Amino acid sequence: MHVKSYWVEGSPTLPSKIMVPASELLNVSAYTPGDFHQFFDDPRTRAQYLKWAPLLLEAEEYKAGNRELGKNGDDTVEDSGDGE
């Protein structure tokens, strides 16, 4: 399990942690732009693509420079605080 500490801007500065099994993480560093095509373009895996699409498309956006790392300058994920 990987554990990351995070806080939500505007909230009390109490430390919080989220635990996620390593099997549920996507290694964005290893992602190459266009990788999603291997799942989407193949009719045998297209149905499964829907469950991976949000992660793969976020990785695509990150690699395109449209997403930033956490404010700490590391790979911290910051919760938007809206429960989503």
Q: Quick summary of this structure?
A:
With about 80 residues, this protein is α+β, with helices and mostly antiparallel strands.
> Which class of secondary structure composition applies to the elements?
alpha+beta
Q: Nearest-angstrom radius of gyration?
A: 15 Å
- Going across the biggest sheet, name each strand in turn: 1-2
- Give the quaternary arrangement of the chains: single chain
How would you sum up the global shape? elongated
> Uncertain spans, ≥5 residues at pLDDT below 50?
78-84
DSSP helical segment count? 2
- Beta-strand percentage range: 5-15%
Share of helix, binned: 25-40%
Q: Averaged pLDDT, please? A: 75
Number of strands: 2
How many strands, what sense, and barrel or not for the largest sheet? Answer: 2 strands, antiparallel
